[in-house]
Write a structure and sequence with these properties.
With 324 residues, the protein is mainly β. The protein is built from 4 helices and 18 strands.
């Protein structure tokens, strides 16, 4: 097993999730669209970027996301004001150097031009020790379609006497690019294990493996999970995570409770709002997708830990581990 130090750290799916999940929502008030202020921030240690953005909620059919002009942003670290800044034309803010530190209490306040004041606080969790014997290979059997099933096996130590949260996914990368865009292939789950089933989210087809330590607090965990041969292709600019070798990788992430809750709520919201996999509209739906539309559940509320507005402000600690 080899840990990869990212030289050119890039955005990946879960970042996109957290920066857009609370933005592309339709909110109707008295029959008209009403914009609410949104503050999203992901602060990371390890192979993952820290990003902070201010926007407004928007109709999901809108061609663009509106951002505030002349907003003010203040950052605190462990109660000390470390920076005052303003967002650029796209709503992104420069994050202070050395702001994202493991264990530090990170806070932000955004003052929108309309007078709305948004605040949030979170911390970056401590990194778990991952044993150097993680593997990814054949599980020794085929699925019901006759395709080979693969298995991830990784051991890590969960800190005792505290609540901890995790997110993992397995992906393949080959050094091929098209117009400066490369692609990663994210593996799809097969027969979720006991830890994942305990989350109660598998019926909502989650994109990643996220879970708490409810079943293994303070233990050495032998985490094994099967995968089908199917993958989800994700385009990424440049070389993801500064990877230098083709191969299969594990993204292993310690996440804060706020991040964990946001991913859970987004997974359920995405599932209840989609028409179906691979179809453009209802007229293209096959019977089971049409039934899903007709009997679709109500929208699920999106998690937010931002006071005075919407959004997610969360800390993560990421390791990129080569599996072959």
């Amino acid at each position: 097993m080899k840990t990869i130090k990212a030289r050119y750290i890039l955005l990946i799916t879960s970042l996109f999730i957290c920066l857009t999940a609370c933005v592309k929502e339709l909110t109707l008030q008295n029959g008209t669209d009403h914009q609410f202020p949104v503050m999203n921030g992901i602060f990371s240690v390890g192979g993952y970027p820290s990003v902070f953005r201010l926007t407004y909620t928007a109709n999901p059919l809108a061609e663009q996301i509106n951002t505030p002009e002349e907003a003010q942003v203040f950052f605190w670290q462990d109660g000390e004001l470390v920076a005052e800044t303003s967002p650029d034309a796209n709503g992104y803010c420069t994050i202070p150097d050395l702001f994202a530190q493991t264990g530090s209490v990170l806070s932000a306040m955004a003052v929108f031009p309309e007078g709305d004041t948004l605040t949030a606080t979170d911390s970056i969790p401590t990194r778990s020790f991952v044993n150097n014997d993680a593997t990814f290979g054949s599980a020794g059997f085929m699925d019901e379609h006759g395709d080979n099933v693969s298995r991830l096996s990784v051991r890590f130590t969960d800190p005792p006497n505290q609540k901890d949260y995790y997110e993992l996914f397995v992906f393949s990368w080959r050094s091929f690019s098209l117009n400066d865009t490369s692609f990663i292939q994210v593996r799809r789950l097969y027969q979720p294990n006991t830890i994942l089933n305990n989350e109660g989210d598998q019926d909502f087809q989650p994109w990643t493996m996220y879970f708490s330590d409810e079943l293994f607090d303070g233990q050495l965990v032998q985490f094994e999970q099967n995968f089908t041969g199917a993958t989800r292709t994700i385009p990424m600019p440049g070389t993801p995570f500064g990877l230098e070798e083709d191969g299969v990788y594990l993204l292993f992430r310690n996440v804060s409770e706020a991040y964990y809750e946001s991913v859970k709520s987004w997974t359920r919201h995405r599932y209840t709002q989609r028409v179906g996999e691979g179809i453009a509209d209802v007229s293209d739906a096959i019977l089971e997708d049409f039934q899903r539309v007709i009997f679709a559940p109500d929208p699920t509320p999106m998690y937010s830990n931002v006071e005075g507005g919407l959004g997610v402000f969360a800390g993560v600690n990421t390791q990129i581990i080569k599996l072959d």
